[in-house]
Amino acid sequence: MANYKRLQVPKGEKITVANGQLKVPNKPIIAYLEGDGIGIDIWKPTRTVIDAAVKKAYGGQREIAWMEIYAGEKAQKVYGELLPEETFAAMREFLIGLKGPLTTPIGSGFRSLNVALRQVLDLYACIRPVKYMPGFPSPIKNPEIVDIVIFREAVEDIYAGIEWQSNSPEAKKLISFLSDNFKTKIDPASGVGIKPISPNGSKRLVRKAIQYALQYGRKHVTLVHKGNIMKYTEGAFMQWGYELAQAEFKDKAITTQELNEKYKGQIPTGKVVLNDYVADNMLQQLILRPGQFEVIAAPNLNGDYLSEVAAALVGGIGVAPGGNIGDYMALFEPTHGTAPLHAGKNDANPSSQILSACMMLDYMGWPEASAKIKTALEKTIQQKKVTYDLARQMQGATLLTSSAFGEAVAANL
Ligand code: NAP
User: Fold this and answer.
1) What share of the chain is helix, strand, coil (3-state, %, to 5)?
2) Is the CB of 103 under 6 A from ligand 1?
3) What are the beta bridge partners of residue 163?
């Protein structure tokens, strides 16, 4: 076990990897990062619910040993820096974590702490399930048909943060290099950014999406790209996705053309159809016909837009969970940010954090506890016991604080 200066390692066991599989002991050490802003309001009710669900599901045989790690404002207080090395070391050692939202610092050297965490730990797949829960207010007529899992590439694309400000020496140098060598015509006062998308980065994401579809019996994996315009980045993402499917899932993944020509439109059991949509078309399809999408794989920026639009279909980002997953390491987090206007008021909705914890439990191979939480959450929403964000969209709701909402969910377990 590593020697930590400021982290307290609780009594418990490490999650390990053996033969390509996670090995989760009965009392695993799980890292948690409370987060900034409303992080403090949503973490406590989330922990109440998880601990109660694990106890109920496994009769006390299993338990999580929570280990606090730091990033953001709390890390600044504890370490005097926003992203301490011990946080990365603890994630590398204990592999699984649950985090709250983090404020994007202005002028601190970090573009975003979340992006830095994903990049340093190589958590390349940002996975966002979007599923309707009865009782949630939705802007569409048939939200119950929405059940989509979005795989958003998380470390490449323009999110890689390789960009320079207008009129900076770097931007000027790059613009004149491009002009001299490639005869490009760019206004010399432009800001410029680089959009790297690699074969390896694209293929490992699409691999995860297809594996997921096969494991959970989903029939379609849709690649979303803007390849008609950005041919060698977004277009290549699509092409590499098809290449990967052909090379590694030859007997399992088929194209739409194969589906029609070879299988007369009927998807054979055990197979998944790989198709693709251009991003702008996809955004309207997602609202008009969300039921036709099951698993989506997209580069970073498209995936960001798509996951917020999809979340809006089922009640908004206050209820949308997420997970950042690498080859084994995983850090689960709500889709929303720190909602500074609500920080410390004990009124924010913990549902997104609670559902992110459910993803974590599923990932650990503890689906019984996860299922109990989802059922209890659904029941609480149907009882119209909700936080302010949902109360304002419902008739006859009982308005609860964040902590009272956690207690209500725990009572419904
Ligand atoms: P935000 O924090 O997601 O909040 C925007 C609005 O969404 C809130 O004002 C609130 O709307 C609603 N909301 C979000 N979470 C909610 C919850 N749990 N319960 C109820 N309502 C919720 O977005 P932002 O204000 O643009 O960003 C604030 C900070 O968070 C920024 O520093 C941003 O960079 C950061 N951020 C972090 C993450 C992350 O850590 N993964 C993600 C996104 C943003 P109403 O006030 O209208 O009710």
Assistant:
1) 45, 20, 35
2) yes
3) 193
Identify the helix (H) or strand (E) that includes residue 332. Answer: strand 330-334
Task: Report which protein residue has its CA nearest ligand 1's atom 1.
Answer: 337
Contact 276, 295 (CB under 8 A): no
pTM value is 0.93
Q: From ligand 1's centre to the CA of 196, what distance in Å?
A: 28
**DSSP SS3 for 352:** helix
Residue type (1 letter), 311 = A
- Residues forming the active site: 159, 226, 280, 304
- Residues 60, 64, 70, CA angle at the centre, nearest 5°? 160
Exposed/middle/buried for 8, CB within 10 Å: 0-12, 13-18, 19+? exposed
- pLDDT tens digit sequence for 269-287: 999 999 999 999 999 999 9
259: Cβ–Cβ under 8 A, 6 or more apart, which residues?
A: 265, 266, 267, 273
Does the beta carbon of 307 lie inside 6 Å of ligand 1?
no
Q: What is the pLDDT of residues 352-387, one digit of tens each?
A: 999 999 999 999 999 999 999 999 999 999 999 999
272 close to 213: Cβ distance less than 8 angstroms:
yes
For residue 95 and ligand 1, the question of a CB distance below 6 A is answered with: no
Name the residue type at position 271: K
Residues 6+ apart with CB under 8 A from 387: 318, 347, 348, 349, 350, 351, 399, 400, 401, 402, 405
